[in-house]
Design goal:
Chains A, B, C, D: It holds the Pfam family HD. Chains A, B, C, D: This is HD domain-containing protein. Chains A, B, C, D: InterPro entries: dGTPase-like, HD/PDEase_dom, HD_assoc_2, HD_domain. The structure is a homotetramer. Chain A has 17 helices and 9 strands. Chain A has about 400 residues and is of the alpha+beta class. Chain A has 2 domains: about 170 residues, Hypothetical protein af1432; about 130 residues, Growth Hormone, Chain: A (Up-down Bundle). Chain A has a 4-stranded mixed β-sheet with strand order 3-4-7-8. In chain A, α4 packs across α7, α4 runs parallel beside α8 and α5 runs parallel beside α12. The first copy, chain A, is globular. The relative contact order of chain A is 0.11. Chains in contact: A-B, A-C, A-D, B-C, B-D, C-D. At the A-B interface, β1, α3, α9 and α15 of A face β1, α3, α9 and α15 of B.
Chain lengths: ~400, ~400, ~400, ~400
Amino acid sequence: MPKARKIINDPVYGFITIDHPLLLQIISHPCYQRLRNIHQMAFAHLVYPGAVHSRLHHSLGAYHLMCTALNELKGKGTDITEAEELGAKLAILLHDIGHGPFSHALEHELIKDAHHESISLLIMQKLNEEFGGQLQTAIDIFTDQHPKKFLHQLVSGQLDVDRMDYLNRDSFFTGVAEGVIGYDRIIKMLAVKDGNLVVEEKAIYSIEKFLLSRRLMYWQVYLHKTVVAAEKMLIMILRRAKALIASGIETIGATSAIDKFLQSSGSEVTIESLLDDFCDMDDHDVMATVKNWCHHPDKILSVLCKAIIHRKVMHIKLQSTPIDMDFQEQKKKEVAGIVGIDEADASYLAFGGEATNLLYNINNESINILHKDGSLKDISQVDNPLIDVKISEPVKKYYFCYLRV
Amino acid sequence: MPKARKIINDPVYGFITIDHPLLLQIISHPCYQRLRNIHQMAFAHLVYPGAVHSRLHHSLGAYHLMCTALNELKGKGTDITEAEELGAKLAILLHDIGHGPFSHALEHELIKDAHHESISLLIMQKLNEEFGGQLQTAIDIFTDQHPKKFLHQLVSGQLDVDRMDYLNRDSFFTGVAEGVIGYDRIIKMLAVKDGNLVVEEKAIYSIEKFLLSRRLMYWQVYLHKTVVAAEKMLIMILRRAKALIASGIETIGATSAIDKFLQSSGSEVTIESLLDDFCDMDDHDVMATVKNWCHHPDKILSVLCKAIIHRKVMHIKLQSTPIDMDFQEQKKKEVAGIVGIDEADASYLAFGGEATNLLYNINNESINILHKDGSLKDISQVDNPLIDVKISEPVKKYYFCYLRV
Amino acid sequence: MPKARKIINDPVYGFITIDHPLLLQIISHPCYQRLRNIHQMAFAHLVYPGAVHSRLHHSLGAYHLMCTALNELKGKGTDITEAEELGAKLAILLHDIGHGPFSHALEHELIKDAHHESISLLIMQKLNEEFGGQLQTAIDIFTDQHPKKFLHQLVSGQLDVDRMDYLNRDSFFTGVAEGVIGYDRIIKMLAVKDGNLVVEEKAIYSIEKFLLSRRLMYWQVYLHKTVVAAEKMLIMILRRAKALIASGIETIGATSAIDKFLQSSGSEVTIESLLDDFCDMDDHDVMATVKNWCHHPDKILSVLCKAIIHRKVMHIKLQSTPIDMDFQEQKKKEVAGIVGIDEADASYLAFGGEATNLLYNINNESINILHKDGSLKDISQVDNPLIDVKISEPVKKYYFCYLRV
Amino acid sequence: MPKARKIINDPVYGFITIDHPLLLQIISHPCYQRLRNIHQMAFAHLVYPGAVHSRLHHSLGAYHLMCTALNELKGKGTDITEAEELGAKLAILLHDIGHGPFSHALEHELIKDAHHESISLLIMQKLNEEFGGQLQTAIDIFTDQHPKKFLHQLVSGQLDVDRMDYLNRDSFFTGVAEGVIGYDRIIKMLAVKDGNLVVEEKAIYSIEKFLLSRRLMYWQVYLHKTVVAAEKMLIMILRRAKALIASGIETIGATSAIDKFLQSSGSEVTIESLLDDFCDMDDHDVMATVKNWCHHPDKILSVLCKAIIHRKVMHIKLQSTPIDMDFQEQKKKEVAGIVGIDEADASYLAFGGEATNLLYNINNESINILHKDGSLKDISQVDNPLIDVKISEPVKKYYFCYLRV
């Protein structure tokens, strides 16, 4: 058993303290260490060079905020047992363990119908067996089966520590000051009312700022044109590779983990049966494969791979109205001509779609505000000149990407 | 030609402005983009999870400080032509372009006698040809052939912008507050005297702090036991692979770039002839290779690779006195027994050495201080109770690593 | 003449450089040094203990941003002569020189119809005479008589460096993270089009955040209940003192500067004739007077003064709807009874009013956005889901203060 | 009784939480509120304009660090009762309550033999009576009568939270980055061994940095020439006023609190009998008095006062060797001639002395380091190339101030 106390330097919060042997064991488990090699923000570093932090770092940060939030709630008299505390900490530590490399892009490309949250659950169950059932409370909290709802809401809800950390951490590493949130104030104002997580009235400005920061990060960073285009290109690379395989052409150069998923992609193979392989796969597999394929004989595959590696990201139009079909057709022809491929294949190199809430759901921002008199109101009901009723309108954008030639 | 002005968000300095077409062309060149996939701090992220910034990011940061320093000097009346300004900016942008992946560890393992500075020069010369001689002044400054010595000293000297950036950036990303330096004050106090870079007397406290920060970062971060052990393990992996190749065993699983270097490692092949391959190689190659070799039939290779990937870094002793030989022998035996290998091969899994100025030279810290009366004094001659004469003493440590079994 | 270069440490921007002899002379002039003893945020430190920075510090900060903005514009090719540059720097350095102590509260109490901006102009004219006309361009810019409108707009406009500094600095010293603005990005995006200051399209998120931060600071800090109540109390103290004087009662204990203003307050004396006395008066006069009056025989005066000094700030209701008259009357009676004064005088200790845009005008937020195609649009016309059309709605609140008894 | 939980924004630590009714009562007591109007750094703001934070703010900050440290120690199993916790928090909150305005300068000028620590104790005893003995444990801890020595050491010792806060806070507000210390790491490494406060071995680099930061702040800030000169001028102002009173000349213009102390200064009056007056006196008294005396008929008094108010601080020589007596005599003559006073009185306007450890004692830096094997070593005994043996050498400087004419 590892020693029971570890302090980790974190540029965002200063220090993160791990003070339970089980937490230390989980953190040093290969399944968790894999997250070290998965970028939290995928290709965002192509635009924001500092955005190279890992999912491991984010989940440690979210864990730290969970510790702070639990302490705050306990200080206000909320009843939380030691087992629940450990469970909530484990749940947040493991909430992203099911993320694969570039998961927003690849979630449905490498294996069908495998959402990262359900993979997280599978891995938690696997670990629960390995650790003799010690993760059961964590799993109950993660899946909202635990009677104290607020614990689940801290892991996944409108004010959960997951998004508090990612907004803050992503702002920090990108250098986009607009995304910084007053997480410490929000956490200090958390309370539990009738078993649910609420915030005290005094936090209303911080909440308003929190919601705005999310929207700003959404448009300025997460949906940045170059980032979106790079992710789309990666999808096309995988699709092309699968098409080649389907037509019997070898795609030598994939790392063994990637290869396994590509080979099984047409079949009925489930994520359950590939879980160990999944736990072996990280960004290095994807990037090394893409690098090797730069020299692949298939023109489409090599053109796309080189464009990623040399950061010649596709042109992208991103707008509120649908993109003109003639423009799309013309670009496809041009690209096909220049690269020297069939027009039928041009849609690998020039393609469009819709970017609605592509990365993070920003609807349903219902947040309960606890007034001094003990009453609860949803934030949209609060009489405050700062609160913008339009906050929950959905936003959709149309995009069209085409090779930079 | 790309448009002539670009602003890059940087969490350390806020914004970095690129405002010359040639600078933009260099930055978007594949040789430069390669640095995006090379960690500035190699394995330091195993201890400091935030330390995942790239060499590309560092060289942009050093470029930013160069811009600031040149502006400051021009403001004080130092004569710097536009061509020299561009040259100095190009020189610092490219000063690290010859770094390979994990270069402090691998510099002499993948190819003999190829120091990263000489590779930087080779690549700069290659680019100079490609860009029709536009990099000649940059090369002259880099190699200290340019008559205005202070320009070279800004690139490489006791107070160069290279180390100002890396100390600051490494502190920032590790979260080690002790390493933060007052770079803005030092830069504001830079001056040129008789063609050489000096600092004004008022900066003396900042310089003292700068020297101390270097020492602190050196011991607390760059020579952190776990980091040193991981680098040593990587060296052993490459050595084992080369030994296997030499004995005719295939080491399938290396990416194509790594494979080329391994195959040629025993031969007389020079870096010049492999320069294009070198420019294809980054951290993804090393890490994907190590991942693939986790399944290699050679026990030593697979044991070492798994230990890296699962972060089961070797035990390491690091001390001021030589490590007891009996202890070393005993550990070798133990390890050989447990892993099940010949004792002759145990030195792959249990080995020692000296860590003297392993990463950065901290000797020769001569810094010229410009007094108000115009006289110059070396910092060690300054009558100041804060200045520690022992500052330039060499420091050596002995280490011994052995597998965690 | 003082030496021509000075560097001032500033916790907000790092260093502020003064590099012109005239600027140094102005800064060391007693009129300017007076600002050292005037709190930028008056009584805000009663709630935010860090908010004790001075108007001198703020105007140095605004000067620093002016330097940055002018450099940026010159770098983009905007024609700015050396005389204009110096003028703009002097104008911003002196823009607040007409502020008296607690000026938002006392502006119309100590001397009638004397707005701080017109006093600033008077003092600038006085200095202009003293310095042989060297401030003429500064005065022209300050009064918008200079032909290049953008210089005035940098001093006073929707995106002027004054409010950029105060929002940022006030956030910094209060510790209210919500008010931090991305001033560096906004300044980097400033441009001049047809002689007017505009911002490039890319800054739109930063502008949105800037506008929101202003609103947040407005409600969370500038109009904080306790701060408003303390300012109202100070007004009542002065009113009471003037009433006592008018009825022939001596108000021994005022410092000589305060005394002069009180004595002349009923008369036709103008600010012009009292300008030298005005330039002698700072927060120490007000606070020492209030402290001395704690022992004044007049109950109302001493009660109010003690309440300020001991931080027993009045209760205050602050709401969107008018405050119930019965409640007001009842409170007046209560207070009069407890303190033992006539009900006729109770309105010194229990009083109400409206707080509409009390401190800073937040209407008229028209900001010109420069699009890539060279066209201009007001920010409210920009098609962007983040821009909130309601941003320019006026906001009014009703308040009622009464003694804490 | 005030409500039992209050959160205060602090730019240094984010938020400070007060969660005990007695703490809130103490904080809102007039004796404590007085600290709001006493600058923590006296005249340092003449050089560092941001250095205007109050002693109230510092003591809240030190209280916050105390809370953190106690939590950390409790987390490591140190036995601390609730009463002790409250006592330690009260002790640190009140540790500086005996500071008068500009106390480093005026401590022995306004009343003889009254050291601020003994006045703090007097006020704590007064409050203890007022609060029915609830402060007894705090007093015992403050005076080191409490059996658990480490509690006193947290209030006042080599690693106490007092100096951790002031170094950090003074760095923050001055903008002198060199003074920033890694307080969070040091606090996380505190432990109790045999009843005494020690630090774990891992903190050694942070401690080294802490000691260096102290020295840097000492020379760069606390003993900055201009700051020292201004303090010396204030001493001379008081001495001159006392001399005038002694010779029967009225010094109209002093506020009532200052006046009382001046009048009694020659007598046998003790601080005990003037304690209430002492608790009425703050920076506003000193500064308003100095302002009023700018117009005093005594030339020496008015010249000195104007020099302070207009920031025409005296010239000062500050050096390691004694200042030449001839130079001193010559300057005295010059000054006397120009101002038009007797040479006998010239020593008010030109005077010298020694600045040895003027503000803070930096000797006796013995710090116990707790090694992993449980052994204790003083930091000077630690085998570490970073530790500088000269760290505890005393430092003395000679100064000579003379009027800027």
